[in-house]
């Protein structure tokens, strides 16, 4: 009998080539904690690690033990619960680290959209998916998509406060809906799912429904209503503790509607 999510601190194999070590950092923004993914082709003596996770000695040791000889470490985006552990991970594995943002690159070069990486017997395609953060990436394998925080295993993604965040994010979801067809969703938080495209389409439906709600709220509250007023109205069914996060999404929605109507 295999392990089930959430299984803290031990390797849980999900597909033939992907296993996960879940960090013990559960919280409002991290759900059950950060998933550190370990990829390895059958028979390969090397691995690829996706997101070292937070700064946590036990987690870094569990990842290093499960990952063995790490050829390469990739970063989905800059958030601390994904990158805080880079230093200790490097100490334990010595692996080069690659990310879109130079700041997180170690002993290598930054990643670029469309780049194809061959390592640990696997082919990994890098896909830029901004929205959650400006530097968010997805990594596409033959049978799976690693979505970072762009698509989560449960709940919804918080957007950056940039004026183009929502437009970017909707484009990113469309991309995943296209290239994730029939591929297993391997998110950075929450459980995996058999089909990334299915979840991407659910996210698109949800985002468009929220946009409709914000449009309706503006009809009621007036076109110049502030973000907090709109949050109180649209997210009245959501725990007020999440309103701070929701406000950032609403700011993105208001900016989107100002540009796109
Ligand atoms: Zn994040």
Key structural traits:
261 residues; alpha/beta; Metallo-beta-lactamase, Chain A; five-stranded mixed β-sheet; 7 helices; 11 strands; elongated
Beta-strand residue fraction: 15-25%
Number of helices: 7
Instruction: Provide the domain count.
Output: 1
Report on the biggest sheet: 6 strands, mixed
Summarize the structure.
This protein has one domain: Metallo-beta-lactamase, Chain A.
Could you please describe the fold and organization of this structure?
The structure is a single chain. By secondary structure, the chain is an alpha/beta fold. It has one domain: Ribonuclease Z/Hydroxyacylglutathione hydrolase-like (Metallo-beta-lactamase, Chain A), CATH 3.60.15.10. It is built from seven helices and eleven strands. It has helices spanning 57-67, 80-83, 86-93, 165-179, 196-221, 227-234, 243-260, and strands at 12-13, 18-22, 35-39, 47-50, 70-74, 97-98, 116-119, 122-128, 137-140, 144-148, 184-187. Strands 1-2-3-4-5-6 form a six-stranded mixed beta sheet. Strand 8 (122-128) and strand 9 (137-140) form a beta hairpin. Helix 1 packs parallel to helix 3 (86-93), helix 5 (196-221) packs across helix 7 (243-260) and helix 6 (227-234) packs across helix 7 (243-260). The longest helix has 26 residues, at 196-221. The N and C termini lie far apart (51 Å). The mean pLDDT is 95. The structure holds zinc ion.
Topology, element by element:
Elements: E1 12-13, E2 18-22, E3 35-39, E4 47-50, H1 57-67, E5 70-74, H2 80-83, H3 86-93, E6 97-98, E7 116-119, E8 122-128, E9 137-140, E10 144-148, H4 165-179, E11 184-187, H5 196-221, H6 227-234, H7 243-260
Helix pairs in contact: 1-3, 4-5, 5-6, 5-7, 6-7
Bound molecules: zinc ion (ZN).
